[in-house]
Amino acid sequence: MARALVILALLVWPLAAMAQETATEATALQKAMQKDPERFAGRVTDLIAGFGGPEGLTLAGIDEHIALERAAARASALRRFLAMDLDADGTVTRSELQVSQRAASSDARGRMERQFLAADADGDGRVDVAELAAQGRLAGLRALGEDEAGFLRGLMSLDADGNGALTGAEVAKAVVGQEGAGPEKAD
Ligand SMILES: [Ca+2]
Ligand SMILES: [Ca+2]
Q1: Considering the entire predicted model, what is its pTM?
Q2: Those residues with Cβ within 8 angstroms of residue 42's Cβ, 6 or more apart along the chain or in another chain
Q3: Ligand index nearest the alpha carbon of residue 96
Q4: Interval between CA 143 and ligand 1 midpoint (Å)
């Protein structure tokens, strides 16, 4: 009997964890709608216009948006490093850093030093290809984190007719349904 209970608990636990995650996203969605319905609707309308297909915004469209935002942040982070790679071997050494630092303003020198030290994860005095790639990934996640990505994917819960595509009308309906529904509406 006890054993059966343990097995049951093991089976149910992951499902409960998943439900919890979905509930957290739903709450974040409701909060965003209640806090500033106009801003929320505007933002989602822009997303639908920018990344939606003829039927509306799909999960694939949301993922494209997430990937593009992260790629843009990754590209600008990598650009800073690549501009210091004087011999074009794909890695930035301390002596390459120093040449760039000499040419930079005094304000920029300190920042370049910090960025170099942060990127040189193994501390061998050079930022190699793998360390550069890691910096790029980090910059992407800083620009659009997992919480935000989860929130954006959670928008698909507003797909009222369940056809896998979110329309402006569905968003408008959801926002109207949420207005005034908040337990602690901001004053
Ligand atoms: Ca180099
Ligand atoms: Ca290194």
Answers
A1: 0.75
A2: none
A3: 1
A4: 27
